[in-house]
Amino acid sequence: MKLFTLPDRKEVEPGAVHAPVMDMHKIDPFYDELFKGLRAKIEYKIDMVDLRVLAVSSAIAGEGKTLTAINLAANMASTGRKKVLLLDLDFRKPSVGKMLSFPKGPGISDYLWGTVPKEEIIRKATMPGLFVIPVGKTNSSPADTLAGEKFRSFLQGLRSQFDLVIIDTPPVLPVPDAVTISEQVDAFIMLFRLSYTPHHLFRKALEEIGERKIMGVVLNGEEKKSDKYYSRYYGHYYKKVAQ
Ligand SMILES: Nc1ncnc2c1ncn2[C@@H]1O[C@H](COP(=O)(O)OP(=O)(O)O)[C@@H](O)[C@H]1O
Ligand SMILES: [Mg+2]
Asked: From 219's CA, which of 59, 97, 149, 193 has a CA 20 to 30 Å away?
């Protein structure tokens, strides 16, 4: 089921400022190069079976979901082949808007719980072909709303408006949101942060989502024992790419 390995940025360039996407025209070259690989693997699969809504999730917080969702969406849009929407559904810890330095404004919560129309929450990113829906106002109990009809038809509408919708979700184990939307999502990409996430929690998260729905796993970071291997075979290459 393994799809892709994302090495730890800090280990490759000690002391580097960690900014995955400075703005949508200037993706960090380190991530850009890496996510091209993931994009190629995913693009092949989604075109074969016409998958339109992909969720990025993991067992616990801090595994790299948002980082992966943003870079994957930007990389998919950068080919010009797909109109891509990045949807932040992490109501508890919304970070897509922040990571992209978007000015504050209405988001999905203002549409679902408020009266803001759909057209006003879809923001255009600076990169052509990429659109973003941030969370907007935070809400502490979104699971019921995500199970409701308004969200269902909203997502259905996005399917006809975009070629690909990438959803940044909250972690699977602490809150029910990711499992709640799983029926409406075509496939999940799961993150597993090496030397960080307990294995039994990762397995539990896979069970909760159900293997049938999981397209693959992104291994984020490196297991200590493999450091030597990576620096010998890839370290030099990654350094070059990151310059
Ligand atoms: N491969 C990586 N290299 C360096 N920093 C990383 C890597 N993956 C994640 N991080 C950092 O770890 C923190 C958590 O990542 P984030 O994508 O916000 O996780 P999540 O959305 O799963 O909570 C962020 O500061 C992020 O920049
Ligand atoms: Mg996140």
From this structure: 97
